[in-house]
Amino acid sequence: MAVYTDVTDGELEAFLSAYDLGALLSFKGIAEGVENSNFLLHTEAGYFILTLYEKRVAAGDLPFFLGLMEHLADRGVRCPLPVRARDGEALRRIAGRPAAIISFLDGMWLRRPQPQHCASLGRALGEMHQAAADFPLRRANALSVAAWRPLFALSSERSDEVEPGLGEFVARELEFLERSWPDALPDGVIHADLFPDNVFFLKNRLSGLIDFYFACNDLLAYDLAVCLNAWCFEPDRSFNVTKGRALFQGYQSVRPLTAAERDALPVLARGAAMRFLLTRLYDWLTVPEGALVTPKDPAEYARKLRFHQKVGDAADYGLGLR
Amino acid sequence: MAVYTDVTDGELEAFLSAYDLGALLSFKGIAEGVENSNFLLHTEAGYFILTLYEKRVAAGDLPFFLGLMEHLADRGVRCPLPVRARDGEALRRIAGRPAAIISFLDGMWLRRPQPQHCASLGRALGEMHQAAADFPLRRANALSVAAWRPLFALSSERSDEVEPGLGEFVARELEFLERSWPDALPDGVIHADLFPDNVFFLKNRLSGLIDFYFACNDLLAYDLAVCLNAWCFEPDRSFNVTKGRALFQGYQSVRPLTAAERDALPVLARGAAMRFLLTRLYDWLTVPEGALVTPKDPAEYARKLRFHQKVGDAADYGLGLR
């Protein structure tokens, strides 16, 4: 939950005067998103989201994120569409922050996704990858394999506070990942954070993808590996192969994986687990005492990583030959 | 900002099936309100607010609050209207909490109200007092003069941490208030918490009063004293007599004050300042280290109290004879 920056009525009126959205009718902070401040905006033109980009988002990346959403929406991907002001610009400033208005997407995120939802997710991810293929801007993945060792260095001394032996476990796994990370797989624009709370459904139909603020250029199959971790494990931490199968079937109905991608999946899944393990570990160890926001449990991702270490090949994820 | 209780999509679907509101389209936590969890709810029937009542609100008081909103809305007061389910009940349960759906009110709260807004506020308060005159339920004010000494006892030992000498200052003032508190003034249902963030405006027109969860039976003029403190001081802490005059003119255009009410205003204003000083003092001293929510400054209300101690009579607030 997050509203970090307050916006006064005067600032908002001035900001909106650059747009053709009619009079302001309502404005409420939304308790979603952990990186930015989000507001529900109601004007005579309808309902919108106003996002203020807080300091964890680099201002230089915003043209990539906003351009990508517009590019995808233009190609039929259901995602928020940035609203341009009368001067053609979607990226503006309010209350000392970069800010943009995006369209309001109906839909609910699923607390307990089922296999059919994993299939829809896979299809939508494949469609997103295809629609982004001709997106002209580039952004490196700041949280890929090269970043993991320096990220771990920020938490390594205290990592055993989370779980005895975790530091040694991560150090060994990092060596493996750095040695084994694939580099010749198909790449393109990936979402990189497609957790259930970033995917909306309406009556079991996928109605939109949101939160493109980790999107970047990287291996396409790595995006699938992120989803595998985020969607296909049960609350009891066991892997649900039916969900895995559905995810891959959905994805491959749009874009079949190459043999090399299939072979690399266990390594990619270990890397995706490492990436979220490390950011959660850092957040866990740096959260202020007594803070209202409970950081997410890094141990969940250590367990997923151990599962992937034991996987023989992609068939164990439910990925059959096509 | 607050969403204390998460609601799953399954719980929400089941909850909504009791209403005639059509299919669920969207559901987002709102970062407003410090006592309850509030969600923006979009269904085929429109936009609504779903409120889950957290433990600081006594479940036994909810029929009073919801009944009052319905009573006022029926009489033309612009305030949220509780939505009844098909069985006629507006008060239900979800996620283990009492809950209600209320109508969504357009409007913005003013960060910097001007005298014209104080006049509108006064008028709306007078209209609310009149519209509530025949409301049949009763609820005692749990935060009136009798409650202040026990409330202070929870913070008295540490009150000098906020400001040297504050404990002694409050103790002396409590003696004065207990001795001087009026009891024969006109009473009725009061809002008791009509701060700027509970009053919506659209293009300088008052569009609604919200958050009736402190409403109770008490002296009508005490409600005005709460507003005087909350609306008529400047950011530099000085009293703005133009705003005071506007507030009273607005109120008296609907319901003229009696001579006894006018005479009692300085004492009522001291009491209203004491009530918010004490709850802020308690919150200030009990907030967890490192919490994301900054508690409101109790010293602001100590300063207002000192101002009222020096007031000669109600004319100093801008309250002229009519």
Automatic annotation (TrEMBL), chains A, B:
UniProt catalytic activity: L-homoserine + ATP = O-phospho-L-homoserine + ADP + H(+)
Pathway(s) this gene product operates in, as recorded in its UniProt entry: Amino-acid biosynthesis; L-threonine biosynthesis; L-threonine from L-aspartate: step 4/5
InterPro entries: Aminoglycoside_PTrfase, Homoserine_kinase_II, Kinase-like_dom_sf, Pseudomonas-type_ThrB
Gene Ontology molecular-function annotations: ATP binding; homoserine kinase activity
EC code: 2.7.1.39
UniProt cross-references to SUPFAM superfamilies, sorted A to Z: Protein kinase-like (PK-like) (SSF56112)
Domain Aminoglycoside phosphotransferase per the UniProt entry, residue ranges: 27-257
Domain of life: Bacteria
Signal peptide interval: none
GO biological process terms, semicolon-separated: threonine biosynthetic process
Residue ranges crossing the lipid bilayer per the database entry: none
Keyword terms, alphabetized: Amino-acid biosynthesis, ATP-binding, Kinase, Nucleotide-binding, Threonine biosynthesis, Transferase
Keyword Transferase: yes
Recorded family membership: Belongs to the pseudomonas-type ThrB family.
PANTHER family: AMINOGLYCOSIDE PHOSPHOTRANSFERASE DOMAIN-CONTAINING PROTEIN, AMINOGLYCOSIDE PHOSPHOTRANSFERASE DOMAIN-CONTAINING PROTEIN-RELATED
Protein name listed in UniProt: Homoserine kinase
Species this chain originates from: Propylenella binzhouense
Lineage of origin: Bacteria, Pseudomonadati, Pseudomonadota, Alphaproteobacteria, Hyphomicrobiales
Protein's gene: thrB
